[in-house]
Each structure stands twice: as C-alpha cells, then as structure tokens.
C-alpha cells in the first residue's frame, strides 16, 4: 500500500503488540483512528485510497480475531501454545517421591534413594531439614508430647529387610540411629504406638520367627516367644508384612496387596505375637482373600481399628470401597460399609474409627466421613489445578496435609476444614 509511511507504521505496531501480549480494550478502534487521524500532507489517487480502506478493514478484522482468541483463552484457562505444563502459583517438589506425616512432617526421596525428612513451621510455609539417610521413604514418623519420637525408615535394600530406626528425645530437632539386635537373618517392618513403645518381627531362619518389643524408642529390645511364621501366615513372606500394634500386646497383620490366596484377610494376636489366628468376615457373599485388594488399615493404641478393602471381581477389577470397624484390635469386625464405588489408585487415611478420608474418581475428588461411614461428604475437585492426591495425613478432624501430583509436578497442600478445601504450600528446598 502506497502512502505516508508513518500512517502505515502505527497500525502495524499495534498489531505486532497484540500478538505478543493481551490487547487492551479498544485496540481495533485505536488502529482505525491512527490511520484516520495521521498526517495527510498529500492526497492519494482514488484507486490507492480504496485499496488502503480495504487493508484497514482487514487489519481491524484480524485485530478482532486476536482479541477474541486471547480473551477466550484466558476465560477457559487454556495455556498458550508452548507454555510449560506446570501449574502456575504452586511450588513443585524437586524429588522422586514424597510422603506427608501427621504433625507437619514431609519426607522427600531423591532419584538415588537419599531421603530427607523436613519439619514444617508457620503452618507449613517454612521447612527445616531434620534427618537425612540412604533408604526408602519412612513408614512412620511418630512423636509424643514429651518430645520422644521415632522414624521407621525404609530399608536401603528391600531384599535385605534391614532394621532402620531413628530415635529423638528433643521433638525431632536431632535424631540418632538405633542399633539393631543381633541374631536375626531378616527383619520385618517395625511399628510404634507412640514415641517409645514398638514391636518388630525377627526372622530367625526357616519357619522360625519371634516378636521383639521396645519401650525406649529402640535403644533396647526384648524377645518374645518363638513361633512358626510359615504356619501362622501361610503363603506370605513374614518379613514384608505390615503388623499394626495396640497396647497390651494386641496386633493386626495386614498382608500386602495381591499377596497369597489364604481365605482370610487379616491375622491377629492377643499375646504379643506368641500365637496368631485369622479374623475377618466375608463381604456381600464374596470370599475375602489376601488377593482381594486390601488397601490400608489404622489401629489405635486403645484397640479401635478401621480396615479399608476394595474387593475384586472374577476379572480382577476393583469393585466398591468397603470399610470395616473394630473396637477390640481386630478380634471382631463390623459389617462392611460401602464408602465408594470402584477407583484406581487411592490415597487413604483414618484418624480414628470415625474420621476417614479417601480420594476417588481420577484422584482429585475426596470423600470424608466423621461418623464411621454412616454419612459421607463428597468434595469434587478438592485440589486446585487438576492435582490428584498421592498421600494424606490429618492431625485432627480439621487439620490435614497432602502430597499431590499434576502433569509431572508434585506439590504440598494444607487443609483447615477437614479436606473440603486445600491451599498450596511452599515446598521444602
């Protein structure tokens, strides 16, 4: 288009800016005005004037299209082409794995299996590294009001089944590894009911095991009666069993997911592990086995317990999520309560026999109950940004922590209202 170069420069500059940043209101009008109000020191021939008018109209249409596209993109939340997949405003955890524990503790594991345990303060807005070790993520971080506590760390080599327990006496500021008792060929997973009292299974050879107990955070251990673990846990490897303990030497054995074909789902003891027996009802006509997809359990020191179970059908597909409650450390169980329909990977947590949390759907929705499953509250899309729950931990019916992932990004979240709403936290660094 021939004419004054200054008149052509203004609309072209506005169009270029529109492709770089969201256009301000009235952009199309400014482009047209810039052309109309520019210097007109010489008149163009009529034919050139007509071509110029067509070009200006085409420019206005292009600007309108850009404005509409940008505004629709902003409304829908769709990132621009080439944008990073990370969720804006939510800090990512730079770790291969992470897990939250009640009381504001977060464990992170690097790609080379180096674990760092962080303690949160200021509501989880600042973090202090308290313990670093080589191994797997902890199964327990337990502290009591006196400041005594333990960390049950994951072993460096799962096949070795080593004993890895750290003890603190100052509320977790400093930690010390406890020496393992000698004489065992392999160790089970330790479990502590508080910062001092715990148990662990020691494998002494073929079909011979014993339970060891401690009352000083693992500094010393006392051996119990030996028993035949193969006979008591048929088809299961006793060193990989999760054994939950209550006071008085009562315990529940939780077989790992998909392990064995025994026609019961849990084993219990009333005498510190000297003798064991099976305990669990059938579910809606389905025989319950160790391959039925048991997911998680919680046992309190007073013997109250809740057991989550997701049975599978004949094709191996998960059916409904069921919950069972016990008031006597697993000696007897309630009828199963149907909490939810089938779902893939779940994050589960039970604060006690009344307060439970379970992720559902694609993992972003949350189910909560405060009355043992009689009524269930559903919180769709409880997490912002399309995150899905990976682990959950509550210190009270209202205060909870979570690790969640979205599009390869892992982040921490905090809830003050029982899981209905979650806010992102600044992650440990």
Question: Secondary-structure blueprint of this entry?
Answer:
Blueprint: H1 5-20, H2 27-37, H3 46-76, E1 97-101, E2 105-109, E3 114-121, E4 126-134, E5 136-143, E6 149-154, E7 165-168, E8 176-177, E9 186-187, E10 191-192, E11 198-205, E12 208-214, E13 222-227, H4 229-232, E14 242-246, E15 250-254, E16 267-269, E17 277-278, E18 294-299, E19 305-309, E20 321-326, E21 337-340, E22 348-350, E23 356-360, E24 365-369, E25 377-379, E26 388-394, E27 400-406, E28 409-415, E29 423-425
Antiparallel strand pairs: 1-2, 2-3, 3-4, 5-6, 6-7, 7-8, 9-11, 10-11, 11-12, 12-13, 14-15, 15-16, 16-17, 18-19, 19-20, 20-21, 22-23, 23-24, 24-25, 26-27, 27-28, 28-29
Description:
Helices cover 14% and strands 34% of the residues. By secondary structure, it is α+β, with helices and mostly antiparallel strands. It has a domain of 71 residues. The strands form seven sheets. Strands 9, 10, 11, 12 and 13 form a five-stranded antiparallel beta sheet that branches. The radius of gyration is 31 Å and the shape is globular. The N terminus is likely disordered.
Indicate the radius of gyration in whole angstroms: 31 Å
Tally of separate helices: 4
Give the oligomeric state: single chain
**Quick check: average pLDDT?**
76
Share of β-strand residues: 25-35%
The total of beta strands comes to 29
Q: What structural class do the secondary elements suggest?
A: alpha+beta
Principal-axis shape equals globular
The parts where pLDDT drops under 50 for at least 5 residues are 1-86
* Percentage of residues assigned to helices: 10-25%
C-alpha end-to-end distance = 58 Å
Query: Could you give a short account of the major beta sheet?
Result: 5 strands, antiparallel
